[in-house]
Structure prediction request, 409 residues.
Amino acid sequence: MSEKNIQFLLLIEALKNTNRMNTKTAGELAEYIAEEWEALYPDEPMKPISPSTIGRHVKDMNATGLYNIVTSNNMRNGYYNDKFLFDAAEFVIIAQALYRSTTLSVAETKDILNKLLNQTDDVGEGYFDVIHHQLYKTNRAPKRKISGRSLPVIEKIIKAIGSKKQISFSYYNWSDKDRQRPGLMEDDESNKIKNFMVSPYFVVWESDECYLIGHMENEGGAEEDKYLSHFKVSQIGENIRITNRECTSITCMKEFERYHLMTTIYPSVTGIRKKNGKMEIGGKRSAHELAAFALDRYMRENPYMIHDNQDVIGVQLIFKNGFIGELLTRFNLDSKRIKAYPIGRFAAEGEELYSAQITVQPNEGFYTWLMGHANDVMVSEPVEIRQEVERRLQKALKAIKEYDDEKML
Prediction:
């Protein structure tokens, strides 16, 4: 094979993993080709490849229709590949997430997977047959998926976030009147369908469900009343629309001061203050408010995406040694942030007990998490949280006993 042909193949390899956020200049491409050539043929010097030659090769690649190598908007950033294949591992992760998602209907899942099928390798295509049969067989198709369409709703939410506009929608929810299927929520006073006016900030995933994080504009008016709310995307009505009203800045939310990245990464940072209801740093408002919000930490400290207007508090936990992994995964993946230490006591089965403090909003999501792990973790402080957990456990035990007593009659 000629030197030019080998250089061309090495160029294809160099461009394979580029994208709009990871470009390569002609110089970087030439350097990659030279390094790979030396690794392949250490005893055969290669004639350097020029930027003009790289440009011609890129033009030839695009002419085949098999590639779409794009020049970035900033010419100095170079080239990137805008047509690529997912490898098998990437495809399987995406396909399985789509299959499990309760937000997407079966039809929407099929449509997305069919598009992805054209973008995966042969091994990925093989796994597609597995998911294909699970989706198309009536007795195997996921029963948890919704019957409507969520993608048009998500698209409007994303457009509203990009244009910083509020959205308006009705919301489906289960009630005593709708035991068979969810109905649209009604206003408690007027008994008319409730209309939500929301400033949207994020679309996130939690436990196979897609959520909108935003601020309800028609709930409270004072600055101190502004806080974040969560909505299941699958329950947002089809009448969603983008309004002409500007979004309330996320910096106005009571949660922003805690979850601003500067205070998250550097808790002792100074110069952070509020002005006209908005968070400012060093006298200048953040240019990227949503990017400055510590979303991952916020989601970890609000289990199951349940949230209300309570303040975040510190909770001291006592837990078994083997539970530290679950604790770090749920509340802080950085073990240096959660200081776990032995308390000199042991569980009934002999496992050593540890203690650590977490920060969390004491809402229903947190109590659900505690109840679900009652055999491995308990609350030490504050006393009111421990007492509430005890009350719930006693109530559950009482219900079981009452049920068993009725069976004996």
The mean pLDDT is 82. The first strand starts at residue 69 and ends at 71. The first helix runs from residue 3 to 16. The chain is about 35% helix and 20% strand.
